[in-house]
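[job 4471] stage=fold_predict status=RUNNING
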Amino acid sequence: MKVSVILPAAGLGTRMRAAAESTGTSRKQFMLLEGVPILIHTVRKFVASHHVSEVVIALRREDIPWVEEMIAHEKYQKPVRCVEGGETRQESVANALFSLAPDVDIVAVHDAVRPFVSQEIISETILAAAHHGAAIAGIVPVDTVKQVHRHVVRGTLNRDRLVLAQTPQAFRAEVLRRAFEKAREDGFTGTDESSLVERLETVEIHVVPGSDRNIKITRPSDMELAQLFLASEREKVAG
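[job 4471] inference complete, writing structure tokens
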């Protein structure tokens, strides 16, 4: 089974702008975590998975040369390459998706700024996608979720029927290509890859357990938590 992982990393971001600029970069995916860009921490997780065949990073054109230098310095044992992304996440993933070889079986998409995804989540999501056609990582919300309209509560949603979507989100390659083609034909923009596949109405998307450690680094306060998680991972590896 050939599995390609797409990391969309062309976004500019706004919530982390001030904190990022204080470290010498303007984007969260390139902020340093213990001296290493968050993007590289994320790439390492997927390179370490025995299920993954290659990693494709979608970047802004001006970032490609120096990211390629970082990749070369890492000396990965499997292919890691860069493609030019787009103005939106959806465009970036589409560019990477249609650059894949025709013999790719499974495509997984993961946020470049989720560096603490576990090997278990990676494996379970990919295997579930291979079996069912589509799978995402997700967690059940612990807080009560209210439905509101114009700042007025209109109801309380049943948490047993809700899930907070994470990444990776993995799909059989032909399913994801079809979903992106339909979205382009319809002029539809989704918030994640699952929302595009849902529109096909022919594939059931299965949910595998995510983790509250699989955080998406989007706010300055997330960096403090990220440093704690990284220290915890290193202690675990050290024994």
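[job 4471] summary: Residues 21 and 27 are 8 Å apart (CA to CA).
[job 4471] exit 0
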